[in-house]
Amino acid sequence: MNRSELTGAVAKRKNLPRTRVDDLVRAVFDEIERSLRNKQPVTITGFGTFRVDRCAPCTRRNPRTGEPVNVPAGFKARFKASETLNAAIQ
Question: Is the pTM of this model over 0.85?
């Protein structure tokens, strides 16, 4: 499901205008992104936690040439599903 399909499903389920729901969905994603940019986790009870983890520098191999490639340290967004969500998808 992409953002457009999510917007349509929520609009239909709640009988709201699609444009209003799209604004709300975008606002939610924007706030999650803003918090992650500030390295602050976002916990949604019953759904999961978005957080930023620091990644150490490492060396990888180019799959085409086999040559080593140095990957600098950086940050990655992570998501950990809640126990409730994990139970729901079992």
Answer: no
